[in-house]
Structures are given as structure tokens and as C-alpha cells.
Design brief:
heterodimer, A: mainly beta, five-stranded antiparallel β-sheet, B: 114 residues, mainly beta, 11 strands
Chain lengths: 111, 114
């Protein structure tokens, strides 16, 4: 089965700083999702990447997919307290929308 | 109103009791999922259903059962709850009709088994 490893597991940054979260897959990524979860709440979809080398941005969040390395990164520019939460990557194992999720990265942003 | 709703939001029960968690959606999606979340373990798929007559086991289906009563409703049952089923449970939906293939999540049910 596909396994996803996220790093770091937790991150504390000062407001205004940039940060990067990584997601590494044990198998080829056919589709990679990024979700954000506020503590104890449901997940909110951020973006999906499908093609090798693809890059997408939403506001101050940019995600890239490096298919050759089976890796994706999520970069937040000029972090704000509203960015705090748990970020999870999810992999689509072959196009059937049966998503395997990583263990998550907990982000705290200190004002 | 929320597109994906879960009831109850919180539940405390005792070992051996039967528990049902319910999920309803107004998105018109054909696919529905049940996940559990434990600290440090991310989300694990329990069951998924691609339409009313199609139900499949996920990674951790032992001790759980599901029922897809209608396209909009998908319930999860714990026939005899045990303490290691204490977790946060999420329902999600998606559509097979194109788009980003993203899943839409409910707010979660926090279940505690004593």
C-alpha cells in the first residue's frame, strides 16, 4: 500500500516568516492533494497536483509536485496566524479517489 | 448550511455498547467515505462507497460496519465499541463527475469509549 511521509511533524514560526512542508511518497504519485485542518475540525481542500513539475498557488500558499522524486512541497510565504493548523497531504492511488493521507504537519504561527 | 453534516458531534460511550455515527450530504455526490483520525497517525480509511450499491473496506474496517441508506446518507456502526476506537471520525464525499477529485469533509465526530 502507498505510504506518505510528511516532514516536519510540527513547526513553529514567527509571523511573517516563510516555511516549507514536504510530503514524500513510497510509490508513484498519480495525484497529490493538500488539505488544511483547523484543530479538531474537518479538512479543507487547498489544491491538487497531477503532473510532474506542476506548481499551483492559492493566495500565499504554493505547492509543487516533483514526480520523479515522488515528492511534493507546500510553501507558505509571509506566514500569518490564520495559516496555523494541520496540513495533510493525500495521494490518489491510481485514480479511484481512494486517498491515502500522510500523518500531517502541525503549524503554529506566533504573532 | 453545511454541505456535509455529521451527527453526533461528540459521543461518550462504554465498552461493549453499539454506536452509530451518521453522515448526510447535500452536495449530490455519489462517493462517500469514513475515516478515523488518531494523534500522530493521520487519517485512516475505514470504509468507502462509490454508489449506493457499492461498499468497500478500507485500511482498518475490522470492528466497523457501514450502511449506505441513500445517495445522501452513509452511516458508520461500531457493533461493540472498545477503548482503542476512541478517535475523531470524519465523513467525506466526492464526485466521479470530473473536477479536482477533491473530497469534502464533514466537521467530525469525537468518540470516546470508556
Amino acid at each position: 500500500s502507498q505510504e506518505l511521509e510528511q516532514s516536519p511533524q510540527s513547526l513553529i514560526v514567527q509571523e511573517g516568516k516563510n516555511l516549507t512542508i514536504n510530503c514524500t511518497s513510497s510509490k508513484t504519485l498519480y495525484g497529490l492533494y493538500w488539505y488544511k485542518q483547523k484543530y479538531g475540525e474537518g479538512l479543507i481542500f487547498l489544491m491538487m497536483l497531477q503532473k510532474g513539475g506542476e506548481e499551483k498557488s492559492h493566495e500565499k500558499i504554493t505547492a509543487k509536485l516533483d514526480e520523479k522524486k515522488q515528492q511534493s512541497s507546500l510553501h507558505i510565504t509571509a506566514s500569518q496566524p490564520s495559516h496555523a493548523g494541520i496540513y495533510l497531504c493525500g495521494a490518489d492511488s491510481g485514480g479511484y479517489q481512494k486517498v491515502t493521507f500522510g500523518t500531517g504537519t502541525k503549524l503554529q504561527v506566533i504573532p | 448550511d453545511a454541505d456535509v453534516t455529521q451527527t453526533p458531534r461528540n459521543r461518550i460511550t462504554k465498552t461493549g455498547k453499539r454506536i452509530m455515527l451518521e453522515c448526510s450530504q447535500t452536495k449530490g455526490h455519489d462517493r462517500m467515505y469514513w475515516y478515523r483520525q488518531d494523534p500522530g497517525l493521520g487519517l485512516q480509511l475505514i470504509y468507502y462507497s462509490f454508489d449506493v450499491k457499492d461498499i468497500n473496506k478500507g485500511e482498518i474496517s475490522d470492528g466497523y460496519s457501514v450502511s449506505r441508506q441513500a445517495q445522501a446518507k452513509f452511516s458508520l456502526s461500531l457493533e461493540s465499541a472498545i477503548p482503542n476506537q476512541t478517535a475523531l471520525y470524519f465523513c467525506a464525499t466526492s464526485t466521479s463527475s470530473g473536477g479536482n477529485n477533491e473530497q469534502f469533509f464533514g466537521p467530525g465526530t469525537r468518540l470516546t469509549v470508556l
